[in-house]
Amino acid sequence: MGNINCKWHANSTYYGSNPLEVYSQHFKLLTKNRTIPLFDTGLLCICLNGTYHYSYTNTLQSIYPGQTLKIKLSLNARIVKEENITISVKANDKETPHSICKVLSTLEADQHVHKTCTEVSYSILSENKCHCKLILYNVNYTYPTVYFIQLLNCPPGFAFYNQQCTCDPKLSSGIISMTECDINSQTILRPGNSWLAAAVWNNSYTYKVSAHCPLHYCLPYSSRLNFSTPNSQCQFKRAGILCGHCQQGLTTIFGSSICQKCSSIYLFLIVPIAIAGIVLVLLLFILNLTVTDGTISAFILYVNIISINTPVFFPQLGKFMPAYTFISLANLDLGIQTCFYNGMDDYAKKWLQLAFPFYLIFIATSLIITSRYSTTIQRLTAHRALPVLVTLFLLSYTKILLIVSSVLFSYSKIIHLPGDHTELVWSVDANVPLFGVKFTTLFVACFIIFLILLPFNIILLFTRWLSRFTLINKFKPLIDAYQGPYKDNMYYWVGLQLVLRAVLFAVSSLDRNNNLIIGIVLFTLVIGLHSILRPFKNEIKNYQEMIFIMNILILFALALYDHDTTNMTTVNVMIGLAMGHFILIVIYHMITYTLSGATRNKLQLHNINRLVGWVDNKHHSVQLFRLDSYVKDKIPTAINYHEYREPLIIQD
After folding, report:
1. Cα–Cα distance for residue pair 460/416, rounded to 1 Å
2. Same-domain status, 124 and 184
3. For the segment 135-147, what is each residue's pLDDT rounded down to a tens digit?
4. Count of H helices and E strands in the chain?
5. Which of 17-26, 334-343, 523-532 is predicted with the least confidence, judged by mean pLDDT?
6. Which of 286, 373, 487, 648 is the most buried (most CB within 10 A)?
7. 23 with 14: CB under 8 angstroms?
8. What span, in angstroms and rounded, lies between the C-alpha atoms of 352 and 3?
């Protein structure tokens, strides 16, 4: 930002003149009383586009104090026979004694120029932030080449000190430490994951600084920043305060923080997404893939923990990764990077991300309500509707927790310098005003959900102590559905896992390194407790959960060991093993469904009957569960199926 109307000193020959016109006046002054030979030994020529131009003055140069002035000069190649010639530098002449301008002392006062174009560099220092004049003489001190230099005011990030533009001390206030500044490129070295902006107030620069820019928004590594292009510190084509929204004409997408051009044609994705929700609910009903059965409880814990630590295990989401897609789909997310409609921002994306899990819960709840009025639906769903509902809620727990937390607790501090005034902004999109109509609506909705999640955690953790209260007993069918597969004295195990999710999420929001260390410590303790307590009634389910927990612990240890860049091959292998484990669980439920009820009675294959008999004798609890399911299927139709509902657990 330069001072265009800068004037020469009052005692200068050029006082009152426009600096842009001075060079032509000076040309007349040089040629007024002398005759300049066309070809003269030692004549300096200015190189323009690789050709020589005879000139004794040059266009006005605009630079910052301390900036390097690069000049290409040459001798007349047709006349001069010497290989080089010495160029002497004069900072100012007798006509402008008060225009103080000097060459940086670390450079030589004399430079050598060859016959061909040679670039000569001078760093200009000045006590006068307005103008100065640089004169280059040939060896005979005749026919000088004159550069009139307009000295600009220091750009943002710099301050005039010691006759040059240096790092602005306002940016070294303890929030960030600005030690490297390059006036030639007008850039400063910003720390990784930080965000900076500059403005002008009362002819002085003010700054907005945040030491913690949201992950996947700002560049995570140190980079050169020119305040004239503030979006260069953002990644994925983001822009604005804390890189909180997309550049003009671009749209945020599902699956990452990337911005790209989108079309509203993608709104038709609503149809396959709606169908997928119905199919998922039906599969849970048909295959009995519920937490009441207990076979997928450990799998849900696994995908929830990986989802919480996505920035650790998947630091780069710029391309399709099967492991990431699998984890996202298991957490009721799309798992792929896709547009939805043109103009969607992160605020709208939060609403849409909330919509799908509540859509699934709505389907399951509708089936429960409808079964009260339809004997057909009652016969098909009565004994599994509630387990499916609680399974969907647990499956979507982490996704809902992430969204709610990003609205209620995700705020960033922006420090205004000077003055250290602090401003709170929403980390997801700092361009959305806090507690405006838009933000307040989302905040209230998330706060209501939070008032549901918090008691949900407490009740599942302290069931045995809270069961004495009548209000808690009204929710006993829901509680029994979660605690059915656990031993009588281990009903708190599912609540303990919910607390584990919440703690890891809280830590991951603060610091990646602490998250890895705390994750390793917590899951080491969980493995120790699990090996001693054996919380499930069925021993196979104990082994199964232990395998998933060991998988998580190994992933945390590998991420901590490979501190800077997590080895994606190892992550894919470990998640691939978990995926294979889940497929085996689904196959088991498919076989169980095939061999259940009337279908099982019709099959008389000897080998299959021996296998099923061995499993039933080995694990008596499995036999009881199958018998209960078979009896439930034979319950006659009634107006209120709750009259026939058996307890999910045996009361003491």
Report:
1. 45
2. no
3. 666 555 455 666 6
4. 20, 23
5. 17-26
6. 648
7. no
8. 50
Residue 254 in domain: no
Q: Is residue 230 part of a domain?
A: yes
The answer to whether residues 382 and 290 belong to one domain is: yes
**Joined tokens for residue 105:** 């002392």
Rounded to whole angstroms, the Cα distance separating 179 from 165 reads 13
Report residue 598 as tokens: 């009337």
> What's 43's domain CATH number?
2.60.40.1080
- Please give the tally of structural domains in the chain: 3
Task: For residues 114 and 230, state if they share a domain.
Answer: no
Q: Quick one: residue 50, left, alpha or beta (phi over 0 = left, psi -120 to 50 = alpha)?
A: left
Task: Name residues whose C-beta falls within 8 Å of residue 152's C-beta, 6 or more positions apart in sequence.
Answer: 1, 2, 3, 62, 63, 64
Instruction: Quick: pLDDT tens for 67-112.
Output: 887 776 665 433 333 333 444 454 444 333 333 455 543 334 455 5
CB atoms inside a 10 Å sphere around CB 294: 25
Q: Distances from the Cα of 446 to the Cαs of 26, 327, 400, 404, in angstroms?
A: 72, 24, 9, 5
CA angle 335, 274, 351 (to 5 degrees): 65
* Angstrom distance (rounded) from CA 573 to CA 569: 6
pLDDT band, very low/low/confident/very high, at 525 (cuts 50, 70, 90) = very high
* Residue with token string 């009361």: 651
Could you give the CA distance from residue 327 to residue 346 in angstroms, rounded to a whole number?
21
Which residues are registered as beta bridge partners of 413?
A: 424
Give ∠ CA 460-465-469 in degrees, rounded to 5.
Answer: 95
Strands (E), 10-65: 44-48, 51-54, 57-63
Task: Enter the tokens of residue 114.
Answer: 């060859």
Residues 277, 306: one domain?
yes
> What does 394-459 look like in DSSP terms, one character per residue?
HHTHHHHHHHHHHHHT-EEEEEEETTTEEEEEESS-TTSPTTSHHHHHHHHHHHHHHHHHHHHHHH
Opening angle at CA 210, ends 165 and 431, nearest 5: 115
Supply the angle between the helices 437-461 and 493-508 in degrees, to the nearest 10: 140
| 211 lies in the same domain as 272 | no
User: Cβ neighbours of residue 489 under 8 Å, at least 6 residues apart?
Assistant: none
> Confidence band (pLDDT; 50, 70, 90) for 419?
confident
What are 542's two structure tokens? 């104990």
Query: CB neighbours (10 Å) of residue 156?
Result: 22
**Structure-token match 């607390």, residue found:** 499
Q: Which helix (H) or strand (E) holds 251?
A: strand 251-252
251 found inside a domain: no
Note whether 130 and 39 are same-domain residues.
yes
State pTM to two decimals.
Answer: 0.73
User: Which element (helix H / strand E) includes 532?
Assistant: helix 512-533
pLDDT range class, residue 23, cuts 50, 70, 90: very low
**How far apart, in Å, do the first and last CA atoms of the chain sit?**
80
Question: Are 451 and 390 in a shared domain?
Answer: yes
CA distance 514 to 499: 18
